[in-house]
Design brief:
Helices cover about 70% and strands about 0% of the residues. The protein is rod-shaped, with a radius of gyration of 51 Å.
Amino acid sequence: MKRDDLRKLGIEEKEVIDSIMQLYGDGIQSVKSELETLKAQVVEKDASITELTEKAKALDGTESTLKELQDKIATYEKGEAERIEAEKQAKINQELLERFNTIKGEQKFNHDLVEKGRFEEFKKALADEQFKGKGDSDIFQAIVKPEDLANPQQQQIILPGGSNTQPTKAEFKSFF
């Protein structure tokens, strides 16, 4: 707005025109000041947006890395739990083997596989209701058969011309 615009509207007094121009100028200054404040805020917000965008880009792979680490932790925890359980089982198995060997005493089995089999039966029998209330020696006697044990009075007979070893092919043919 200009002074000429006010004169065209029919205002001729200089003091009135000066007052109107002063009010108009104050209003414009107020708007300019507010505009500058808003421009500064826009620049500040743009800087914040840029900063947050950079941070977001830096975090893009973090979620997958976090998931991978959580999976590894879960795997390690599972492995550790299995290891602890295996140790418990080994300890229990060792204690049962000591009980079995105490009852067995000096007796020897015909073969290692027979002994292992009877030991496994002994372990099962300890949990069986049928043997509840019975002692280890009663369970041992119930599961071990006399033919399972080696008989020291039994002698190995070696036939003439024979030995404890398998005959070679040539020796085998010479018998015939």
